[in-house]
Amino acid sequence: MDFSLANLTFSEDQCLHSTKAYKKCDYRDVLREICKSYQSSLNIPIFGYSAKIQSQASGPSQIFPISRDLKNPFIYNNPMNLTEVYTECVKSLELATPINLLQIFKMIKEIGMLAKEAIVHNKLENFFVFYILSSGLIDDLQDVLNTLFDDPTWSLIPIQIHVINLSGPNLNTEDLDTLRF
């Protein structure tokens, strides 16, 4: 989930993220819908990117659990709990730049390789689905595309990746990096 400065809508002087339950918030709404699709999963891991997770940090964290617990990124899959965890996370962060996804894609690939290894050894048969909720801007897009298209390993691992663009009206369609995927 994108917590970068690209979520600011300058024309309306607001943010696409909201801590107010009554206010429209596409990130929260899409997150709830995704989680509904996986109701059979008791706990799900949710990560954020491109935000300062500590006020004294020199730069943004490019991947962090929204649970804010590095040892346990899993969140109880319940709409009220998800709203509470999301709200507390938003309150504790500072939106930042750059918006880099390469680390996230490397983590996804590592999980996929572990899953493939487990399948080969008949220990596990899982398929992983990853959702990347984005404001539409990606600073290291070329690096991500090079990683995806230049490495044949991606086609062999049991994963599926969805990039969901939640850009606001302040961005021109031709400026959105997610259109290039």
Q: Helix coverage percent of residues?
A: 25-40%
As an assembly, this protein is single chain
Strand order of the largest sheet: 1-2
Counting helices, strands and paired strands, the structural category is: alpha+beta
Main sheet properties: 2 strands, antiparallel
**Count of individual beta strands:** 10
Element-by-element helix/strand order: EEHEEEEEHEHEHE
Mean pLDDT across every amino acid position: 87
If helices are DSSP runs of H or I spanning 4 or more residues, what is the number of helices?
4
**Percent strand:** 15-25%
Output the radius of gyration: 17 Å
Shape: globular
Which segments are poorly predicted (pLDDT under 50) over 5 or more consecutive residues? none
- What number of structural domains do the residues give? 1
Overview of the structural elements:
It is a single chain. The protein has 181 residues and is an alpha+beta fold. The chain has one domain (5-180). It is 30% helix and 18% strand. The chain has 4 helices and 10 strands. It has helices at 26-37, 79-92, 102-120, 141-150, and strands at residues 8-9, 14-15, 43-45, 47-48, 51-52, 64-65, 74-76, 94-95, 128-134, 159-165. The strands form 5 sheets. Strands 1-2 form a two-stranded antiparallel ribbon. Strands 3-7 form a two-stranded antiparallel sheet. Strands 4-6 form a two-stranded antiparallel ribbon. Strand 1 (8-9) and strand 2 form a beta hairpin. Helix 1 packs antiparallel against helix 2. It is globular, with a radius of gyration of 17 Å. The mean pLDDT is 87.
